[in-house]
Amino acid sequence: MDLPQKRKRISYELTNSQTSSREAAPSSSTNGQAGGFVEGSILRITMRNFLTYDHSEVFPGPKLNMIVGANGTGKSSIVCAICLGLAGKTAVLGRGDKVGLYVKRGCSKGSVEIELYRASGNLIITREIQVENNQSTWMLNKKHTSQKAVEEAVKELHIQVGNLCQFLPQEKVGEFAKMSKIELLEATEKSVGPPEMYEFHCELKTFRSKERDLENVCKEKANFLEKARQRNERNKLDVERYYMKKRHLDRIQMLEKKKPWVEYETARKELEGVKKEREEMKKKLKSLKEAQEPLLRKIRSVESQLQPIEQQMKEDATQKCKQKHDQLEYRNKEVDDIRQDLSLKQTEEADRQKRIGHTQLMIKDLQKELQNMGSMEDVTPQIEAVNAELRKIQEEKAKLEGEMSDLRRDKDEAFGELNLINDRIFIFGLDDMMKVKEDKLRTRFRDTYTALKWLRDNRDRFEGNVYEPMMLVINVRDSRHAKYIESHIPLNDLRAFVFQRQEDMEKFMTEVRDTQRLRVNTVIAPEESCSRRPPSRPLETLKPYGFFSYLRELFDAPEEVMSYLCYQYKVNDVPVGTEKTKSMIEMVIRELQMRMIYTAEEKYTVKKSNYSSNVVSSNSALRPSQFLTMTVDADERRQLEEQLRSIDQRMAAIREQQAKLDRRDNELRANKKKLSELKGKKRQLEQKISTKQDSLRQMEQNEINLQAIEEETNAKIAAVNNKKVAIMEEYLGHMQKVYLALQSAGLSAEKTKLETDCRDSSAELKRAEVVYTKLDQVKNNLLTTCKTLMRRASEICNMTPGETAVPEELHQVSSAFSQLPDTLDEIDAMLNEEKTRAECFTGLSDAVVEEYNRREREIQNMEKELDDKTNALTTYRQNIAEAKERWHLNLKQLVDQINERFSDFFRSMQCAGEVDLHSENEEEYDKYGIRIRVKFRSSTQLHELTPHHQSGGERSVSTMLYLMSLQELNRCPFRVVDEINQGMDPVNERRVFDIVVRTACGVNTSQYFFITPKLLHYLKYAEQMTILCVHNGPYMLPPHKWSEKAFIRRAKRRQIP
Q1: Is the dihedral of CA 895, 901, 905, 906 positive or negative?
Q2: Name one GO molecular function term (predicted).
Q3: Which pLDDT score, from 0 to 100, does residue 33 have?
Q4: For a pLDDT cut of 70, what percent of the chain falls above it?
Q5: Is the CB of residue 179 less than 8 Å from the CB of residue 959?
Q6: Per DSSP, what are the bridge partners of residue 318?
Q7: What pLDDT sits at residue 679?
Q8: Can you spell out the DSSP letters for 232-294?
Q9: Which residues, other chains included, contact 938 with Cβ-Cβ below 8 Å and sequence gap of 6+?
Q10: What is the pLDDT of residue 750?
Q11: From the CB of residue 396, how many other CB atoms can be counted at a distance below 10 Å?
């Protein structure tokens, strides 16, 4: 082969220790800065005492660099020099783990110097390796620096020697195929993606991780909150009954507080009446005293006239006369006293008669009122009947409450089971389940998925029911049974749309098949529904053979879909068995003669020959389900929801019965209150009549015999007058002056008459004073009673000393105090009623209420925490949506570009290859990956590139073509691939070489290092290639004796015939 004359770049090796004169950047005539080098490309590699080299300098070209040499000559040493010289780790090379092992044996140190192209000035990186301490010394542009500074400089030039998509050494070729889809995606992002793409991906993974944590926290808090609410709901009735009892006890306490106030108020009113009567008597006393005053003045006037006469008589009378006068005065006074006693008796008797008449009149009125009430029947039986009915109502309410508690318990259990199902739905989410199914549909049947999106946007254009592909609308009740459904229904029907009307199906096919050129399947449901068609034989007859169900009972589907499956695939007549069925399969086939049956892990098809009548059966193993595994037990959920509705209806009926009983209870209690008031009023009338009759009998027994008293009084007066006459006779006998005696007698008579009149008025005054004294005593007694009652009421109401009014707070408690009865009888009746009601509430404690209130506070706190976490979750989801929008579209475009080149490369080799962005769940960003699928034979399907499925040569071809797909997209300044063509067959090696040359020598490509120990004959080369031949050994010419021109002359002479 003729060597191009214009090739000026020759790589050479120095076997002796000689230094290169190239310390600065080469001139443009020799290094090709203007010849297509990109930022970061390698201009020069200098190695001293490095692996197989004493001293060598390599000058690669800007495009494809083919490094060729026999095994052991040092090709891979150049790869190691690139890696270690650019601050790469030894683990990338897969050789020794210590950097000192890369120094040539027998030397104490070695070095690597790499010159990188930069528009602002080339960058020279020098690494000197010390064997003794396994340390390295770094320099940038001949100035000492740190490894970190070198790493930063390399990173700025987008060089990633740790990325297999950029740097693939010999020992790592096999690991490329071992890379997971996730690792491949990250390596591709770093290699060819924009700088921010991998950052966005990492940000998304972080956000998703936090979102998942928040979802779990929200779920846990929601579950805990629901359980707390359920626990509180169970205790709510006890709390309500506790507060009802407390209200009754509070009312009892209020009644007990008001009762002394009512007693005090009754005594106070009575005291006010006595005070008023006392004041009236006081006024009467005053008027009597005023009426008596003129008589007293006249008596004083007569006494003033009589006094001189008596004085004169004293002077003339003897001592005996004076004595007789005194005796006479005494007798006169004695007569006055007798008459006054008689007057008092007469007054007392008159008062007694008056009181008797008044009492008789009151008794008559009370008896008349009682007689009017007597026509009413006795209310005691009615009250007893009301009490009996009230007890019966209480028993019914207690029974209903027991039923309500049982229903609540049943409801809680049903809620718990429903929550388990809802938790499964929450974890996976019905939407998420559908998304998973849709993802599988999009991945496997892209045309069907496109048609599905069109259908959802245009559903209003169809008149009948149109169902999405069966794999989306079928819900298998138990995921373990999905394999039976998928084995029985062909895949073409699983992805088929189901139509109710023929014209709708034709309209749909015209649009998606003819207009959009999509390959989709459609079916039409039978006109007559077959969804409830019975099986040919009852399931009970099959159970002895181990069958537990027909296929139809294992899944749910819309009416038309189920009808089609029953009609087309007889899912209503295909039984499903167990291992027991498998163990007796020959008997099952022989005796049942069914066309198709399923055992635990196999499908049996039975046919009967039309010619020989022989029964032929075949079986096949069931494959794991791919599309129908995401299921929810709809029947169980529907039954639980129906059970909850039934419980709610029964609870509503019980509440209605309770409301009726409460209304009846209130009516009975109101009736009982009226009857009790009526009975109490009758009892009060009887007590009043009895009291008045006792008082009347007492007054009648205290009758005064005025006639006997008057006769006795007259006799006493007559006796006293006789004594007065005797005294007077004796007195007159001693008088010397009759005139004085007559005058004195006249005045005395007048005085006596005046004193008699005065005594009459004094008797009335005395009677008034007696009544006044009694009233005053009654007033004092009532005042003492009022004070006692006031103290008692104050003590009960916790009033401060000195307060005399009902405390204001008692009037402010919902006006309850003022609304209580104002009579003692009504208060007693209400007290008895409230105590009876309070006694009905038993088995209640403060601990239940405290626990309920504590849990209510916890529920409020949890609701607030849940709201905060939900808001935080919403924020994270918004951040995820924004980050995904920035990342996913660019990544999808990048993968599509890679796929386009990858597919083209494989097509050019008469093979097939595909690269796609793969994710089982679009929301799990740490599960995204790049999937490579290839096929090298037309008879096979596309298979994912794995370390085990393809041969070594096929893996090498796939790896090489993937790397070439990245070449034109690459952000990195160069790519290194070491001996990747090992194991390829000659045909594939030639094809790959052509692709490498064509791609790596393109216009917009970066530097490429392709290392190989051998080359096929008659390969096609490009002008942009640089071929670096590596020779090594003891007979090599030293560099100063090497002549490029002489080598070319000798080559030309050999070509001349």
Answers
A1: positive
A2: ATP hydrolysis activity
A3: 42
A4: 79
A5: no
A6: none
A7: 66
A8: HHHHHHHHHHHHHHHHHHHHHHHHHHHHHHHHHHHHHHHHHHHHHHHHHHHHHHHHHHHHHHH
A9: none
A10: 66
A11: 16
Q: Please, what is the Cα angle at 740 between 739 and 744, to 5 degrees?
A: 120
Spatial distance between the Cα atoms of 640 and 633, rounded to a whole number of angstroms: 11
- The answer to pTM > 0.70 is no
Weakest-pLDDT range from 549-553, 607-611, 720-724, 758-762: 607-611
How many C-alpha atoms does 744 have within 13 Å on its Cβ side?
Answer: 21
- The closest alpha carbon to 735, from 310, 302, 303, belongs to 310
Structural tokens at position 823: 């009579």
Cα–Cα distances in angstroms (integers) from residue 831 to residues 243, 311, 820, in the given order? 18, 81, 11
Rounded CA separation 55/19 (Å):
7
Give the number of C-alpha atoms closer than 13 A to the C-alpha of residue 992, restricted to the C-beta side.
28
Q: Are 1030 and 67 in contact (CB under 8 A)?
A: yes
Structural contact between residues 14 and 1038, judged by C-beta atoms closer than 8 angstroms? yes
Other C-beta atoms within 10 Å of 942: how many?
Answer: 11
Residue 959, number of CB atoms within 10 A of its CB: 24
601 touches 590 (CB < 8 A): no
Cα 879 to Cα 875: distance, rounded to the nearest angstrom: 6
Tokens of 448: 């069907």
User: If you search the block for the tokens 């008056």, which residue do you land on?
Assistant: 354
Q: 21-44 pLDDT, tens per residue? A: 333 333 333 344 446 788 888 989
Token pair in block for residue 359:
């009492």
Per-residue pLDDT tens digits for 826-862: 777 777 877 777 777 666 667 777 777 888 888 888 8
Contact, 201 vs 1010, CB < 8 A?
no
Strands in 466-467's sheet, in edge-to-edge order, are 466-467, 497-499, 522-524
Q: In 3D, which of 610, 606, 626 has the Cα closest to residue 618?
A: 606
Tokens of 258: 């008001």
Specify which residues 48 forms β-bridges with.
Answer: 55, 111
Residues 65-116: tens digit of each pLDDT: 888 887 777 888 888 898 888 888 877 776 667 888 888 888 888 999 999 9
Q: Are 180 and 945 in contact, with CB atoms under 8 Å apart?
A: no
CA-to-CA distance for 133 and 84, rounded, in angstroms?
17
Encode pLDDT of 529-582 as tens digits. 898 889 988 989 999 999 999 999 989 999 999 999 999 899 999 999 999 988
**Of 708, 1057, 836, the residue nearest 383 (C-alpha):** 836
Provide the residue count of the chain: 1057
Distances in Å between the Cα of 904 and the Cα atoms of 610, 900, 942, 962, 969 are 53, 6, 15, 11, 15
* Three-point CA angle 633, 636, 637, nearest 5°: 80
CA angle (167 as vertex; 164, 172 as ends), nearest 5: 60
Cβ–Cβ under 8 Å, residues 123 and 116? yes
In the sheet that holds 596-598, the strands lie side by side as: 549-550, 575-576, 596-598, 602-608, 615-621
Give me 337's structure tokens: 């006293």
| CB proximity list for 174: less than 8 A, separation 6 or greater | 947, 952, 955
Rg for the chain (alpha carbons), in Å?
63
The yes-or-no verdict on residue 429 having pLDDT over 50 is: no
Q: Which residues pair with 138 in a beta bridge?
A: 127, 145
pLDDT digits (tens, 9 = 90+) for 241-293: 777 777 777 777 777 777 777 777 777 787 888 888 878 887 877 777 777 67
Contact 403/237 with Cβ under 8 angstroms? no
Distant-in-sequence, close-in-space partners of 527: CB < 8 Å, separation ≥ 6 = none
Phi, then psi, of 930 in degrees rounded to 5: -100, 125
Look up residue 176 and give its amino acid: F
Q: Which helix (H) or strand (E) holds 822?
A: none
Place of tokens 């090696």: 989
